[in-house]
Structures are given as C-alpha cells and as structure tokens.
Amino acid sequence: MKLPIYLDYQATTPVDPRVLTAMLPWFTEKFGNPASRSHPYGWEAEQAVETAREQVAALIGADPREIVFTSGATESDNLAITGVARFNRARGDHIITLVTEHKAVLDTCRHLEADEGFRVTYLPVEPSGLVDLQRLAAAITDQTILVSIMAVNNEVGVIQPLAEIGALCRARKVYFHCDAAQGVGKIPLDVDKMNIDLLSISAHKIYGPKGIGALYVRRRPRVRLKALIHGGGHERGMRSGTLSTPLIVGLGAACAFSQQEMPAESRRLLALRQRLYEGITARLTHVGVNGDLEQRVPGNLNLSFGYVEGESLMMAIKDVAVSSGSACTSASLEPSYVLRAMGVGEEMAHTSIRFGLGRQTTDEEVKFVIDKVVTAVEKLRDMSPLWDMVQEGIDPSTVQWSGH
Amino acid sequence: MSYNDKVLDHYENPRNVGVLDKNDDRVGTGMVGAPACGDVMRLQIRVNDQGVIDDAKFKTFGCGSAIASSSLVTEWIKGKTLDEALAIKNTQVAEELALPPVKIHCSVLAEDAIKSAIQDYRRKQQAKE
Ligand SMILES: Cc1ncc(COP(=O)(O)O)c(C=O)c1O
Q1: Amino acid B38: pLDDT
Q2: What is the pTM of this model?
Q3: Percent of chain B having pLDDT more than 90?
Q4: Which conformational region is residue A36 in: left (phi greater than 0), alpha (psi within -120 to 50 degrees), or beta?
Q5: What Cα–Cα distance (Å) separates residue A269 from each residue in A130, A254, A359, A363?
Q6: What pLDDT does residue B1 have?
Q7: Are A304 and A352 a contacting pair, CB within 8 Å?
Q8: Who's near A185: CB < 8 A, 6+ residues apart?
C-alpha cells in the first residue's frame, strides 16, 4: 500500500496510464498544428482533435460541433457566463447562481457585477446542499438571461436536480449553464434531456491531464456568446489559440474510458464509500454527514467529527491525503463557505473532512483509513476540552464563548 | 500546510495533557477561545505554598499549532512563580515554535490561557480571605 493514501479525488486525479499512452505520440512525432491545412502533419492532428471532440460530445449527449476546447473548467465557466452575459446584454442584465458554486463561477459573477453593471442573485441552498426549485423559479425575472448551477458540488458531492432546473429555464427562456467539472464521467449527463445550454468540463477530474477542458455550447436553439480570447478564430471564433493536440487527445480518451466504465465504477465506489462511512460511524459517535447522502456522487463523503478540529485531524491522519473545510487549511481563515451556506455551524465546519474516493482506491485502503481516523479522533477527543464538556453533559454550543 | 519539527513534536507527543481538579482551591483554570473560531484552550495550574506553579495541564481543541502552543507553555510555566509565568509573551511562543503569520493567533491564545488561569487562581485566593 502506497502512503499517504490518496483520498482527494475531487481536487484532482492521476492521469490514467491508458490516457497517457494515447497522448504521447502527439507530443513528439505527431506534433503538427491541427490548423495546418496544407500537409499531413496538420491533417493527422486535426483528425485526432476531431476524434477527441466526438468522445467528449458522446459522454454528454452532445454533437461534436458543440464542443469548444478550453484550458479547463475555470476558463469554461468564465467563457460561458461572461460570454453569454455580454452577448445578451440587450435582452437583460440579470444572472442567477448558487452561493455554493465553485469560485470560478462566483468570482466571474462578482466581476460582472462590479465592472459591467450586471445584477446577480446568489440563491441560498437547503441544508442538504440542494437548490430549492421554487426559490429558483421565483428568482427568474424578465431581465434574467442566465442561470448557472453546478452539476455536483466539489466539497460535498451533492447532485443538483439538473433536469428540473433545465426544464424550468427552458420554459422561462433563460439560458442554463452547468459547471459539471465534478459531474462529467461520474454521473449520466445528457444535455438534451436536461435542457442544458452550456456545460463546463475539466479533464483532470476524470483521469485526464491538467490544463485542458471544454465548454459545451448548444447549437439548437443556438446559444451565442462573446469570446474572451481573441486571435486566429479557432473553435469557431469562441476560443482562439493553437489547439494542444496531446492534451485534447488526453481529454477525449479520459471521456471515453469514463463513459465505458461509469456503471461498474460507480457501483464499486459506492460500496467502498458505504464501507468507509459505516466503518467510521460504527466506532465513533458525534459524526455528521455534510450534504445529502443519497443525491451524491459515489466518490464523495464529507464528514464532520464533533469536537475535533479539522486541521489537527488531518495532521493526525497524515498517512491519508484528504482536505478539510477547516479555516486553518485555507488562507482565508474562514471555514468553508459551502458548509456555512448549508447551515453547518462554524464549529462543525471547522471539524469537517472531505474523503474523495476514486479509481485507485481499494478495499484495503478503506480499512486502513477507518482505523487511522478512529484512532486519531479518539486521541484528539481525549485532548479536547469540548469533548470533556460533552462527557459532563454540557453542550458546548450553549456556552457563552468569549472568542478572540 | 507543512509544519516544522517542534510543532510536530509537541503535536505528536503533547506534554501535560489532562485535567486538574477545578474545585481544588490551589488550582486555577483558564478557558479561552471559541469553537466557532476553531480553537479552544483549557489551561490549568496548581500553585504550591511558595506561590510556585508545581503542576500544569491542558486540553486543546484546535489546529496543530494551537495544540503545540498550549503544550509548550505548560512546560514553561511549571516551576515558575505566578509573576514569572505572567511575563511569558506570545512572541516567545511563536518564536520557539517558528509559527507562520497565520498561526500567530495560536500563541496569543496560549498567552491568554496563562493569564486566565492565574486570574482564576487569584480570584479563588481572594474569595478565601
Ligand atoms: C466544480 C468545479 N468547477 C471548476 C473547477 C475548476 O476546474 P479547472 O481546474 O479545470 O479549472 C473545479 C476544480 O477545481 C471544480 O471542482
């Protein structure tokens, strides 16, 4: 067993060796520019790019001509939101999103508000982490041009009701952008059935390389947007810049493997997650799940360990690579805004750990992690004055704290 | 965030974890911080007839630096008079553990915990008189 055990698959994933093999020739002997029309170097590169475009499109039920390659989901989110907002300014100036979106969406919205006079509604979420559809319907006005709601949350793994959101947006004639960086290849997605108009994809979340992604842009009815990167007019004018054939081939291969293996891999991960959850909660009390446990991707488990601070827990389980919602792990000194938005108290947000399971996670690793976590939490609770209070029958949340 | 060896040592082998009888009038208890801020320290001292701290215990809910800071100050205050213990400054703790700027608040909390425990002890003594 290789230590530390990697359980941070929502942060990134290793490149699948099969994906790497597919990519390699495109760095060296097949190095042509896919835009070169005058010789076979260009032709073969273009062919490889178009094959990858088909593989990406197939995974989400799109037409290859609807796929625009970008540098990743961050760029896709920027292009979708800013691009659509700018193009449709005459139609309206209002955008709706969720408070629990990724920073790539939230920060883009902030810039549109601050610099370009758009109005943005940041909808709250339910304690489950899910959007309230009635609230969403009520927030749409005749000035609304775009709704941007993610497929799967990166911290708590909850899956938003995309088909319902899509139907609502279509009925109200509002574009629906979906940041699906954490959903693509993990859950079945169909842009037509779900009425998704724009969808962001990232390769490094699905065992592809970092620095490549895609934006799906619907052709019928056509979604138009203003490009952010200008130049040679690549990607039908939506994203200029020489295409990186190896990275694109990697994204395509990653999509193809994810699609083939999704049903079996989902079942496998779900069983492992179940084992992890049950193994921990059988031996520890005061453990809470953050986010809906049912409407969730199989590879995510986000737990709060009462009366144990998240960062010290991560130190205690340093043989396990995970991430925490604790303030101490981020530069901001604020606990996770996602957990806070779900109504998780600050004290519980500080105690949260995200376990991200993936393709290389084994049963043996899960057993090891359960033991490590249980031992560490017991040790830290023995050191915790809050745990002492709980043992004495005092609920620390009812105490008047001075703070600092 | 990676830690230096001193923090890791105190974190992995914390000194003086435990509880003193808070009803003993030779014992002073200080509890500082708040769960919502991510750290709570409880520091207890026991003072002998000569006015010297002869035992100290702590329990801390907090990050590794908070645990290390409290562990370190329990070592430092043992054998000190109350006035000597009150002279310990957070900057000394931060320096000893080489805390980065974002962790300075942990050393501040440790200093506050000493003050709070001594205050509690003195209050008890005054109440006796
Ligand atoms: C939900 C979500 N959106 C966007 C991103 C950004 O993706 P990328 O790293 O490809 O820019 C991530 C990953 O960090 C993510 O989880």
Answers
A1: 85
A2: 0.92
A3: 88
A4: beta
A5: 22, 18, 8, 10
A6: 52
A7: yes
A8: A59, A205, A206, A254, A255, A258, A259, A262
Check residue B36 and give its pLDDT. 82
Structure tokens at B62: 């907090």
Neighbour-count burial for A125-151, b at 16+ CB within 10 Å, e otherwise = beebbbbeeeebeeebeeebbbbbbbb
Tokens 């600050």 sit on residue: A346
CA A125 to each of CA A140, A141, A270, A345: distance values in angstroms, whole numbers, following the listed order: 16, 19, 25, 15
CB contact under 8 A, A312 and B109: no
**C-alpha A294 to ligand 1 mean position (Å):** 23
Judged by CB atoms closer than 8 Å, whether chains meet at B108 and A404 is answered as yes
Ramachandran category for residue A233: left, alpha or beta (phi over 0 → left; psi -120 to 50 → alpha) = left
Indicate left, alpha or beta for A333 from its phi (over 0: left) and psi (-120 to 50: alpha): left
Residue A54 to residue A56: CA distance in whole angstroms: 5
- pLDDT score recorded for residue A367: 98
Return d(Cα B101, Cα A299) in angstroms, integer: 35
Residue A129 phi, psi (nearest 5): 95, -5
B10's tokens: 């105190």
Q: How far apart are CA A197 and CA A67, in angstroms?
A: 12
Is residue B118 within 8 A of residue B28, CB to CB? The reply is yes
Q: Is B39 on the interface with A (CB under 8 A)?
A: yes
d(CA A98, CA A341): 10
Give me the DSSP letters along B5-47. Answer: HHHHHHHHS-SSBS---TTSTTEEEEEEEEGGGTEEEEEEEEE
Q: Which residues contact A141 (CB under 8 A, 6 or more apart)?
A: A92, A94
Render pLDDT for A62-117 as a digit per residue (tens, 0 to 9).
999 999 999 999 999 999 999 999 999 999 999 999 999 999 999 999 999 999 99
A149 Cβ closer than 6 Å to some ligand 1 atom: no
CB proximity B87 to A under 8 Å: no
Residues of A in contact with B41 (CB under 8 A): 385
pLDDT at residue A329 in the model: 45
The per-residue pLDDT for B2 is 65
Task: Give me the pLDDT at residue A258, please.
Answer: 98
Q: What are A280's two structure tokens?
A: 């921990």
Is residue A63 within 8 A of residue A236, CB to CB? The reply is no
pLDDT score of A326: 65
CB atoms inside a 10 Å sphere around CB B75: 12
Which segments of chain A have a pLDDT < 50?
329-331
Partners of residue A94 on adjacent β-strands: A119, A144
Read off the pLDDT of each residue in B30-48 and give the average, rounded to a whole number. 93
Burial class (CB in 10 A: 0-12, 13-18, 19+), A20: middle
Q: Which residues, other chains included, contact A115 with Cβ-Cβ below 8 Å and sequence gap of 6+? A: none
CA dihedral for A231, A233, A238, A239, sign (positive or negative): negative
Determine whether the interchain pair A382/B64 forms a contact, defined as Cβ–Cβ distance below 8 Å: no
Whether residue A145 has its Cβ less than 6 Å from ligand 1: no
